[in-house]
Write a structure and sequence with these properties.
The complex is a heterotrimer of chains A (233), B (218) and C (211). With 233 residues, chain A is an all-alpha fold. Chain A is built from six helices and two strands. Helices cover 83% and strands 0% of the residues of chain B. Classes of the chains: A mainly alpha (233), B mainly alpha (218), C alpha/beta (211).
Chain lengths: 233, 218, 211
């Protein structure tokens, strides 16, 4: 666990420091210089932060779903606690992704919100999380709450592939990778990035993923202790 | 006769006797449409706006009435009677069938009202096809979420809160597909949309059949 | 003749950190009917619902057997009937329609004559075409028994057998219990001492209670 902790701090520090400080030049000659993409310029820096948060939010949701499924199968309450920890974290990253995405939208497309399919999809994910927590708050009995919220997270989870992968393909939109974008078609989105920027991007991706695991681990252990405390009363 | 059909016919007979869902949805449809017509007045509305209004009325009606299939079993105390007679899956399919047919009928009714009162609206075969697929999708989501909330405090607010995020992808596709169909697009343009709707409906129904068992017993 | 049995294995139930009962075990089969007794609030209805597999136990297991082979949880409903004051039949339907629904769902096709005989036995023949919503509570209870008798399920569960019934109703139920004891696996919960005569084994929850 300590390895993850220190690796995370290391990677994310690199991501933040280098991502902000590396200059953008027209003809990059050294590895610490990023190329300027016409139309994007400084805004490209957002990619290094926005995409990892969205990616982590999706991972967190998937993990919450998987743990929910495992709880239904095995009835081990620890799975339920892991599911809650993932969901809380995912909610946080989802809010971050929505906000960073809206900032990008303001600078690139003119307004904070455009109902572009991909932008809508992070909004849907945010609403699913909210609905999940509202559902949980309306059930007072512990075991029933675990069962019903697991059912809902699986139900909502089935629709996730639809709005994350398929919908942007069908409907045209502004976000890179939509129907109208000839360059960015791929399973997720494939940017044409310079190699050094791509490296920093992946550092960020891995860093955020490890950050998720670190915080998840802490939250889960806290929930286990809280649960033990409650059972003993 | 299959067990799902028996449950479906039971719900139909019950609805005929009590007419609760029917009256509620009818009232919601007419009220919402009246508000829209009043607000629009004599102005002519664009096609995208008309389509949005259509699906708003449809969703409003659905949210008001479709949860009854499961909620009434809990409220009227008949769930334990059904529990000893049928499996969770056959009950689910029977009620899904009921909701699907009900939604298609309500949407047809809305279609007729829209055709009568709004000039820019002219349905064609493609639109009807989109409408039927959409109705099945709305009914699928509504039925499983109804099963979920019937086991909790059955509030309509919770029902809407839970259904809406799951319905958004379907709604986005429906609205686009409806617009394309009314504008007279060819089938090839809508192929993606149809595949999406069919895939979406099938996935939802399959996962619901798996999940209903976990809602059946405490 | 198939032999049906139900095994209750160390069933415990805790609800919101409160232990209701612990380690309830018994084996029920045709010829060994079980009566569950205990003071009010001792968890009789909860135990019945656990046996029905409507509620999950906190610990322990409930298993259904047919000729010593376990019956899968998903299809247990095919073999059970349940009578209790806390569920309702379809009140917008008549007695005949409720009976018809039950026999269709259980795939038991029974002649109209037999149905009328059964209705007669439970003193409901004259009301068979009335909507159940117009019945008295005693009539509704008798109709539930009528349906259970028509279905002749392998496992019969009853909660408070004579609740809502007058003396005549009680007699009908006692006759029913005497008969059903030898043809089905009978498990019932009761507070009345004179109802215990139909059981071979008595499970007393107030003895198994904690504190």
């Amino acid at each position: 666990m300590r390895i993850i902790k220190y690796t995370t701090i290391f990677l994310i520090t690199i991501q933040i420091v280098l991502g902000i400080s590396f200059p953008l030049v027209a003809k990059p000659e050294h590895f610490w210089q990023f190329p300027i993409v016409i139309g994007l310029e400084e805004k490209i820096r957002n990619v290094i932060f926005h995409v990892p948060t969205a990616w982590t939010a999706t991972i967190a949701f998937t993990m919450s779903l998987v743990y929910g499924f495992l709880y239904l199968q095995k009835k081990d309450f620890n799975y339920e606690l892991k599911s809650i920890a993932s969901a809380e974290l995912g909610f946080l990253f989802c809010i971050l992704a929505t906000v960073t995405g809206a900032i990008w939208a303001k600078f690139n497309w003119g307004s904070f919100w455009n109902w572009d399919p991909r932008q809508t999809s992070i909004f849907i994910l945010l609403m699913i999380y909210s609905a999940y927590f509202v559902l949980r708050s309306s059930i007072s009995e512990k075991v029933k709450r675990a069962r019903i919220s697991s059912v809902y997270s699986i139900l909502a989870g089935v629709t996730v592939p639809f709005f994350i992968f398929i919908l942007p393909r069908i409907t045209s939109g502004l976000h890179p990778g939509s129907k109208g974008d000839t360059e960015g078609a791929g399973p997720i989105v494939q940017f044409k990035m310079a190699p050094n920027m791509l490296t920093l991007f992946f550092i960020g991706l891995i860093g955020f993923t490890l950050l998720y695991f670190w915080i998840f681990n802490l939250r889960y252990r806290l929930l286990v202790l809280e649960n033990k405390n409650e059972s003993e009363e | 006769m299959s067990y799902s059909n028996i449950i479906f016919l039971k719900d139909v007979k019950s609805e005929f006797r009590t007419r609760v869902s029917f009256n509620t949805q009818l009232l919601f449809t007419i009220t919402t449409l009246s508000i829209i017509l009043f607000a629009v007045g004599n102005e002519s509305i664009s096609i995208p706006t008309t389509i949005s209004f259509y699906w708003i009325v449809s969703i409003f009606a659905a949210m008001s009435g479709l949860s009854r299939v499961f909620v009434k079993e809990e409220e009227r105390g008949t769930f334990l009677f059904l529990f000893q007679l049928a499996s969770s899956q056959s009950v689910f399919i029977g009620k899904l069938l009921f909701n699907a047919i009900f939604t298609i009928l309500v949407n047809f009714f809305i279609l007729i009202l829209f055709s009568l009162f709004i000039d820019t609206f002219s349905a064609n075969l493609f639109f009807i096809l989109v409408m039927i697929l959409g109705s099945i999708g709305i009914a699928s989501v509504s039925t499983i979420v109804a099963a979920i909330i019937s086991k909790v405090n059955s509030s309509t607010t919770l029902y809407t809160v839970l259904s809406f995020p799951i319905l958004i992808p379907l709604l986005m596709t429906l609205i686009q597909a409806s617009q394309l169909s009314i504008e007279g697009a060819f089938f090839s343009e809508m192929r993606g949309h149809f595949s999406f709707m069919i895939g979406y409906n099938i996935s939802l129904i399959l996962i619901s059949l798996y999940l209903i068992t976990y809602l059946w017993s405490e | 003749m198939k032999i049906y049995s139900l095994l209750a294995d160390k069933i415990s139930k805790t609800f919101n950190s409160q232990k209701i009962f612990k380690n309830v075990s018994f084996n029920a089969f045709v010829g060994n009917s079980i009566a569950i007794t205990g003071s009010n609030g001792s968890g009789k209805s909860t135990l019945l619902k656990i046996l029905l597999k409507y509620i999950h136990p906190s610990k322990g297991d409930v298993k259904y057997f047919c000729d010593n082979k376990e019956i899968e949880s998903q299809i247990i409903y095919q073999n059970i009937s349940f009578v209790a004051p806390y569920f309702n039949l379809y009140e917008e339907f008549t007695a005949l329609e409720n009976i018809e629904l039950a026999i269709k769902l259980k795939s038991k096709y029974i002649s109209n004559d037999l149905i009328n005989d059964e209705l007669n036995r439970f003193s409901l023949f004259n009301h068979s075409k009335k909507e159940v919503g117009h019945y008295s509570s005693g009539m509704k209870q008798r109709l539930k028994y009528c349906i259970a008798n028509i279905l002749k399920s392998d496992f019969i569960f009853i909660d408070e057998p004579t609740s809502n019934l007058d003396d005549e109703g009680k007699k009908i139920v006692f006759d029913f219990l005497k008969e059903i004891q030898s043809t089905s696996c009978l498990i019932y919960a009761t507070n009345e001492k004179d109802e215990l005569q139909f059981a071979n084994e008595i499970v007393d929850l107030s003895l198994l209670n904690l504190n």
